[in-house]
Amino acid sequence: MLALYLRDVRMGIRAGGGALTGVLFFLAVIVTIPFGVGPDLNLLARIGPAILWIGALLASLLGLDRLFQADREDGSLDLLVLNSDRHMLALTVFVKCLAHWTASVLPLVIAAPLLGLLMNMSLLGIGAAALTLLVGTPAIVFIGAAGAAVTVALQRGGLLISVLVLPLVIPVLIFGVTASYGAVNDPDPFTPPFMILCALSMFLAVIGPLAAAVALRSGTD
Amino acid sequence: MRLIAENLSGERGGEAVFTGIGFALEDGQSLVVTGPNGSGKSTLLRVIAGLLPHASGRIMVEGGGEEFSTVAAACHYLGHQNAMKAALTVNENLAFWRDFSGDGKLGIADALEEVGLGGLGHLPFGYLSTGQKRRAAIAKLLISHRPVWLLDEPTSGLDKASDVRFADLMKAHCSAGGIIVAATHLPLGLVGVKTLEMGRVHV
């Protein structure tokens, strides 16, 4: 399992693409917002957490279509499915998700504080946004894996995954942004939405890989 | 151990591709599946491996013990694709499959030596020629132990010398008690094999 994790991380970094395109897309979204909204620093600070979250959400949906498709094209997916007696398929999917998160989504979380500066966010706000992203983005990957498994046989399934997955990740977005706001706006609470965000990630860490495993098993042809 | 198929039928997209296939293979026996294009050779192999559902009949292994209790657990499947990553080196690819599928008799360097790729393990897999890629994929069969080999056109892209070498590897696998099911158009150089002639597609 560790071998699978290392292979996928290595692929994500080495093949060029994965990690960097996500960050560049994230950067492009965040940089264009101030031009569109105008130089109102207070407004930017207020919408900052939401924009960071939306940018990170869209950027992490970007690479999801390659999660299983690359393995399917070169035949690896068949062997991963065949080995499901030794390594439970859902666990294999879980490890692939973790590797995808490490290689493609973690860079977004690391870039988020820098981009937060462009949105004139306070240091506390930036910290809160980065923390909620760190906790919340795995949920996006886990539920995205189910979408990626369903569309694995489609050549241009990327957009379809986003459409399938987006409604399911809306709760993650809502609680992530609410917690980020709670950290800076005084009467709003931080802990309850943050805890719900943690719960969502853990819940989807179980449901997502299981659903993806079922889809992969019935999708071989 | 025994690999048994009884009255197996498979379908693609709701159309029956083959029906009533049955065979039983003991330790050391091999089966060569031949037939024209579209007769269902690849489908049969995927059905045996369990990658496709079978429409009727059954397929099982007997006497595989705890470790090889199902066909999927007992088999190596070498399909049309090589299941190797172009961006990783041959060694990295093989090391991954060894860690994932379990150890075999041979180490990576020895397995590469067996298929005639000794000293090329440091190259990215994408740099190899078609035949070399196929040989690297064949090395994958050697680094993890599975009693049953399911081979789909295993020698496509191989030159004559590699053909002979691969035939020797298959003979060695059989004489060590392994079972081989191979779908092919080309003679594989195996002696004393059972053959299964797949019929035409029923249109």
From TrEMBL, chain A:
Location of the protein in the cell: Cell inner membrane
Membrane-topology annotation of the record: Multi-pass membrane protein
Residue intervals passing through the bilayer: 12-35, 47-68, 89-112, 124-152, 159-182, 194-216
Pfam families in alphabetical order: CcmB
Keyword Membrane: yes
Key words of the record: Cell inner membrane, Cell membrane, Cytochrome c-type biogenesis, Membrane, Transmembrane, Transmembrane helix, Transport
Similarity comment: Belongs to the CcmB/CycW/HelB family.
Function: Required for the export of heme to the periplasm for the biogenesis of c-type cytochromes.
Name of this protein: Heme exporter protein B
Automatic annotation (TrEMBL), chain B:
PROSITE patterns per the UniProt record, alphabetical: ABC_TRANSPORTER_2
UniProt xrefs under InterPro entries: AAA+_ATPase (IPR003593), ABC_transporter-like_ATP-bd (IPR003439), ABC_transptr_haem_export_CcmA (IPR005895), P-loop_NTPase (IPR027417)
Keywords, comma-separated and alphabetical: ATP-binding, Cytochrome c-type biogenesis, Membrane, Nucleotide-binding, Translocase, Transport
Coiled coil: none
The UniProt record lists the keyword Translocase: yes
Residue ranges of domain ABC transporter in the record: 3-203
UniProt-listed SMART domains: AAA (SM00382)
PANTHER family for the chain: ABC TRANSPORTER I FAMILY MEMBER 1
Protein name as annotated: Heme exporter protein A
Organism in which the protein naturally occurs: Aminobacter niigataensis
